[in-house]
Amino acid sequence: MSLRRTLAATFAAATAVSIAAVPAAAAEAPSVQAIRQLASGLNQAWSIDFLPDGTGLFTQKDAKTISKIDKAGKVTTVQTIPGVSVTAEAGLLGIAVSPNYATDQTVFIYYTTSSDNRIAKLKLGQAPTPIVTGIPRGSQYHHGGRIRFGPDGYLYAGTGDGQNGANAQNKNSLGGKVLRVTTDGAAAPGNPFNSRVYSYGHRNVQGLTWANGQLYVSDIGANRLDELNKIESGKNYGWPTCEGPCNTAGMTNPVKAWPTSSATPSGLAAYKGSLYMASLKGGTYKLDLNGNGGKLWTNLGRTRDAVAGPDGQLYTITPGALYVSDGS
Known about the structure:
The protein is mainly β. It has three helices and 26 strands. The protein has a four-stranded antiparallel β-sheet, with no helix packed on it. The longest helix has 13 residues, at 3-15.
């Protein structure tokens, strides 16, 4: 047994759970990675963020709940969000804690109603106040849903095209976009079109993160290629004309693309110099900033989100459980 595998096995015994990463393709070298389950029995867990004291706040899409999780893994339901519509991809989706939580006690959520997707703000235990409404929803799919605060203090949201590709190219639609807004939901200063739209031509953005100050997003493709995109203000990322790289003037190619049969990406995190991209086809991609790399933790099945926690650990969400690791 190699030293690498011996060390991995020892760590697994100490942390109670060890998952062997199975290569998703021949080009992805096999490895052994240790990961520890923090909580289980969840109902379509979707997104997590953290309060200033390190307590995690996470959403469960189908349960329509915000829950707390402490460092020992104890889960406590905080509240159920009213008016949430649940379908295959719709429900209570993204969550983001205000960077000024210590003074404003505010949390932001992204969720589906019977008529739209929307972003709302709330104080925990109180009713949400919508700040962005009218984000297109599909009958079942393409809701986007990830929200994150950027280094500039503004709230970014990844939206889906609402099962209507034309929305992605329509700058007057909030669908198929990356949005950038203030904490009141207004267009953030400096946006390229004097609207909430920051970039367009997306199909179903479900991952947002910053590495070295640069915004990256993951976008789910249709039948051919999923994308990792480096986002620049005002750029057009091609959908529905382009799925993956193309040579169409005025459209920006992805950093990397993968067959939809192997990726179907969701949440995205920058952690210890790498990008970690959750995959609804199983496992999590560990990538460099050019998108090169392979999958870890394929035995976990679908992974929904990846988040760098304030405690220095990488948090991985699956529909039914939450895990922590060192990402190595």
